[in-house]
Amino acid sequence: MRSFGYASRYTNGNLALALAPGLTPLGVVASPEFFDGYVIYPQVVARGLLVLADVAASRYYNFVPESQRDPILTGQGDRLRAECFSVCNGVYARLDLLQNGLEGKIGYGTTNVDIGAEMRSVLSSVRKDEDLHIKMGDAGLAVDAGGSQARERPVKMPDRWVRALGNAAEMHRGMEPVFSLTGAQAQAFVAGLPPASGKLVAGWVTPARTGIKLLRQGAKDTVYIAGLHRLSALKRVMPHIKGVTFFQPTFAEAGTVMVVAELPACRITLSLTAEAWRGYSGEGALLSSLVYAQAQKDAARMKLSFDGIIRAMHMAQTWNMDTSRAEDALALLAVSGKLGYDATDTAYFHRELPEEPGRILKDNPRLLAAQKLTDDVTLVRENEWNVPSKGADYRVRLGDSDRYACSCTWYLRHGSNRGPCKHILAVQIKTGEF
Questions:
Q1: Between these two residues, 358 and 153, which has the higher pLDDT value?
Q2: Are residues 16 and 137 in the same domain?
């Protein structure tokens, strides 16, 4: 058990969230400080942080600007990461600051800060030729650019962000690159994006000499994007973009998409839900991983040390288990927000968040509902079960492709694109190792 070094404080209308000591490869650090140094590309980094601030302050569905600007900051020894969600929870954004763009020792730890008006002002004024000093740690985020300074204390993380982090990690794990734009072509694509407050523009996009072109139907090397305006924050870094890569899941509904912009010594990832009105916190992508007792045991064994790259094969070798078991355990660890997934590196990464007992059931009411149905599940015939619920009987079938299907209205509407329904979960619990 690790105790907090000091109490959370509420002063001047702001909550400063105390963080537990950080468990790093060097041992437990009471007051984690994960970076204190300069960046080699100051304007790029400053504008990159503002991209995240823009996303965290925007409600893209029925656009309304908000005051929330709270990125999660993590040091992982060889890189710094900043992450956030939009207010509507339908856009995930991440800025990866790589080691070759930083002058200073990178440590280990996670915190959550607000980028307020003063911080935005300092970052917005950073010029290409002036020094930018950044300090990150349990004290928050501090920047110094050309004599202008700003400091932000840690703040309380939005509760649904923790739930959304797990769903996003599982959805990102299935992402694969479809096509890339480079140089002027990539910059033209960003320049042509509609504003955040613009109308919903959706369709299949494919490379063109002038950036992209919008198609009515999908074809080879196309990606469906529901809401191009949700990528508009990239305009802040348009002059610095060297390339843009479009990702989509191998097996998923059209619309779930990731766009990764390459910048000098860093990259920005924007990931969109399949519809502008849908949020990551409600996707249910990890529900199946929560019902297996073996995954829970394996996850409890694994020790995380703020690694920037975590792969199932390596964890399987380290903890003497097969790769499929390691994958299930890592997926389960993502539920609590401890793991994110980087599709560019095809690997998980570790961030540390305060523990909350009972969070899994609290954040996944569908799982709680499934547990109440488990005792009434009966086997009708091979690979087919009856699940009574609210006065009706529902049939769950396991198909040849090892995929479950259910006769309920929820499944008929969503299929498996938003995780399993409660009836399928009940069957998985009944037939699993519990």
A1: 153
A2: yes
If one counts the domains in the chain, the total is: 3
Longest dimension (CA), the chain: 74
End-to-end CA distance of the chain: 27
Q: For 139-161, how does the pLDDT look when each residue is reduced to its tens digit (9 = 90+)? A: 889 999 988 999 988 877 766 77
Rounded Cα distance, 154 and 31, in Å: 13
Alpha carbon 157 to chain centroid distance? 14
Which residue matches tokens 């968040």? 353
Q: Which residues pair with 342 in a beta bridge?
A: 347
pTM of the entire predicted model = 0.80
Assigned domain for 294 exists:
no
Q: Is 343 a domain residue?
A: no
> What is the Cα–Cα distance from 168 to 191, expressed in whole angstroms?
27
Cross-sheet strand order for the sheet of 140-145: 102-103, 33-39, 132-137, 140-145, 148-152
Using pLDDT thresholds of 50, 70 and 90, give the confidence band for residue 216. confident
Distance (Å, rounded) from C-alpha 263 to C-alpha 235? 13
How far apart, in whole angstroms, are the C-alpha atoms of residue 99 and residue 265?
8
Given a cut of 70, whether residue 17 has pLDDT beyond it is no
Q: What are phi and psi of 388, to 5 degrees?
A: -70, 140
Phi, psi of 269 (to 5 degrees): -115, 125
Of the pLDDT bands very low, low, confident and very high (cuts 50, 70, 90), residue 286 is low
Chosen domain end from 247, 282, 317: 282
Q: Which domain holds residue 420?
A: 364-434
| CA-based radius of gyration for the chain | 22
The residue among 107, 131, 157 that closes a domain is 157
Same domain for 378 and 410, yes or no, is yes
Residues 169 and 93 in one domain: no
Structure tokens at 398: 């396991």
* Residue 67 CB neighbour total at 10 angstroms: 11
* pLDDT tops 80 at residue 430: yes
Whether residue 101 is found in the same domain as residue 181:
no
195 shares a domain with 183: yes
Q: What is the rounded CA–CA span in Å between residue 93 and residue 85?
A: 6
Residue 321 lies in a domain: no
144 inside domain: yes
Same-domain pairing of 18 and 55: yes
